[in-house]
Amino acid sequence: MQISLRVGxxxxxxxxxLILPVFEExxxxxxxxxxxxxxxxxxxxxxxxxxxxxGKLHSISNLLTLGKLAAAHVLxxxxxxxxxxxxxxxxxxxxTAIRRLRADRQSAATLIWPHSDVESIAAAVHGAQxxxxxxxxxxxxxxxxxxxxxxxxxxxxxxxxLTQVAEKARIIGQASNLAxxxxxxxxxxxxxxxxxxxxxxxxxxxxxxxxxxxxxxMFEKGYGAILGVSRGSDEPAKLVTMRYNGSESGPTxxxxxxxxxxxSGGISxxxxxxxxxxxxxxxxxxxxxxxxxxxxxxxxxxxxIGVLCLSENLPGPRAVKPGDLLSAGNGxxxxxxxxxxxxxxxxxxxxxxxxEQGATHLVDIATLTGSCxxxxxxxxxxxxxxxxxxxxxxxxxAQHAGEGMWQMPLDPEYREQLESDVADIANVxxxxxxxxxxxxxxxxxxxxxxxxxLDIAGTSWQPKSVPYVAKGPTGVAVPTLTRLVETMAxxxxxx
Length: 495
Ligand code: BES
Ligand code: MN
Ligand code: ZN
Known about the structure:
Blueprint: E1 2-7, E2 17-23, E3 26-27, H1 31-39, H2 43-49, E4 60-64, E5 73-78, H3 87-103, E6 108-112, H4 118-131, E7 149-154, H5 159-183, H6 192-206, E8 209-213, H7 215-221, H8 224-230, E9 238-245, E10 252-263, H9 283-298, E11 303-313, E12 325-327, E13 333-335, H10 343-356, E14 361-366, H11 370-376, E15 381-385, H12 388-401, E16 405-407, E17 425-426, H13 434-443, E18 451-455, E19 461-462, E20 472-473, H14 478-487
Parallel strand pairs: 1-7, 2-5, 2-6, 6-7, 10-11, 10-14, 13-17, 14-18, 15-16
Antiparallel strand pairs: 2-3, 4-5, 8-9, 9-11, 12-13, 15-18, 19-20
Helix pairs in contact: 3-4, 4-5, 5-9, 6-9, 8-10, 9-14, 10-13, 12-14
Bound molecules: ligand BES, manganese (II) ion (MN) and zinc ion.
């Protein structure tokens, strides 16, 4: 979607459809709204009084302008109570309008935005982008159509700086949608090899370095944990390293994503009900890919390594079996008690690899445990960390990006649940505190680097549509990780 921003007057609006947010208390803040109302002979204010036009959040009414304005209709979108106005509601208002345009097959509109603050404009652009995504990418004769262009009209402010803000939000929104479309791909359309190829194309198009490690090299490096997971499948594992070099010195952030392109559970096979959702078990790797795209476009002065741990988890004849022993890239031995706890295995080698590639700070992102969904539902991502200063940076980035994230404990006592009779560590620690023991397992592979683990099992996929965004993959963590990378950059004097 093309997004442009204009500081101007009503006559500057270029489209046939105007989108106009109104609050429950009445017309929103500034001159543009009042001007529309007066050109429509008070249809808005009267409509609100007569309860024909509502300011309730997510409500929509379509007014015909009958020649009184250059635009043919005004889509009035409820913005809720003015006192509750926030980046979150701004995102929802813009999203609700875009979803309606899609359903009406309208390809362009002008959004009359009531506030000129940077935060709400960025939120509107982000919300509009997220709303312009449909999970029905393989439907032929799709009933909805993408909105092609959105113009945002504000009455005051510095056009150049607001345009920059809108452009940055557009880049992040587009990266979120990339992560969503990847996460939505079914297992047969996105194998580890196809995912790696997609990453290569993206890297070549955006000037990132990329290396795709094959199983033979994993074997040489002793990456036996990821190799153990891929044994049950005919599709070989791929370990992808993407690199963005933005600085000659300073930190290197290592982003490590779980990329199980289909998780059947392996020999410890999952029940049939809802198993198809496990096509999204590479949402962590998809978030890393999206973030790398955003970073390549935003060009912050910092170094980033993105590691994608790509494999299937299937119960083929050579599959890893409960009781089998694996050894990871750092030499630690692992007793596999449950082959369905495969994410932590591929991430173990991914984390070791990111360290070997020079990462100074680690974040892994994974649809890791059902236990995390039980603990936090689908509203908050579980956050686990080994160094509070680094964890706080991630939480702070999440807050600025408007993503729900909640820190969980990692007391050393949880390690006892992972004791194995035969190996250094077992890959499961029982039902109790399952998300925490999973994180405790990962910590063993992070050396002494500051590390944060994001469990997105609940937040990466939403089972229900809401007025401002379609159900399915959410692209969670892309805004947070992009923000995190930016906060680690050395200032270049212009920002
Ligand atoms: N990919 C799943 C976790 C998952 C569950 C993601 C639900 C999204 C929604 C993961 O590989 C898994 O199977 N975890 C097991 C771990 C258990 C065997 C210790 C789980 O959560 O049941
Ligand atoms: Mn599993
Ligand atoms: Zn999994």
